[in-house]
């Protein structure tokens, strides 16, 4: 069952409420994506949860003209967290299970500090508080790596958008690579560059000690974007209870490459058996 929405922000962000479970789950996609990247796990989740999916303001799925995304406003995750809070309040959501992929993991953390009553659990999928290496922190990237990334996005966006998914997703999983290619290519190049700088130059390590909502960190065994050192750092620094769930797959998108293993996490979280679905 899908609930029809007629509200300002939720309409602009293509929000949908699907399913009729007693608990509400919010699925938030990451950089370059849209809500279609949850499609492999959505049918199973909607049998148990009321699931909310939406598109962030940067997404190519936002209807034209896209008047939502302003690079000056969205130069930090704070604006995204405010959008998340406003969306949840508009839909009268509270005590939700929030699933944030990549950048959305940290956005959910920030929102939970501002409005903790909106969240029951935070599921942080491939999340990182900082991507840049420093003397005492392994984020995964040196500045020269990021400068090359920004240069590729700026000079040859669509070529980069064709190539990048095979770097962050198991290149042998052609279906999943294609799904991310399609969402990346729908995003405007100028938005892609602005957003990449917001994401990869971010540093939110200082907020982790303020996160008190129970967290589950979901990490693949081989993720070029987020090294295992980041998982260990987050587990150590987050104030609330933290569990770590490792998924034996390659890449940054376990919801695409290992959907059944991904669903088993919610089986353990809520004692709901998805294995037969």
Summarize the biggest pleated sheet: 8 strands, mixed
Morphology: globular
| Major β-sheet strand ordering | 1-2-4-3-5-6-7-8
Tally the helices.
12
Low-confidence spans: pLDDT under 50, at least 5 residues? 272-277
Order of helices and strands: EHEEHEHEHEHHHHHEHEHH
Looking at how many chains there are and whether they match, the oligomeric state comes to: single chain
Topology, number of strands: 8
Radius of gyration: 17 Å
The helix-and-strand class reads alpha/beta
How far is the first residue's CA from the last residue's CA?
17 Å
Please indicate the percent range of residues in DSSP E strands (runs of 2 or more): 15-25%
Write the layout of secondary structure elements.
Elements: E1 2-3, H1 8-12, E2 16-18, E3 23-28, H2 42-45, E4 49-53, H3 77-90, E5 96-101, H4 103-114, E6 119-125, H5 143-155, H6 157-163, H7 165-168, H8 174-186, H9 189-200, E7 215-222, H10 228-237, E8 242-250, H11 254-257, H12 259-270
Parallel strand pairs: 3-4, 3-5, 5-6, 6-7, 7-8
Antiparallel strand pairs: 1-2, 2-4
Helix pairs in contact: 3-4, 5-6, 5-9
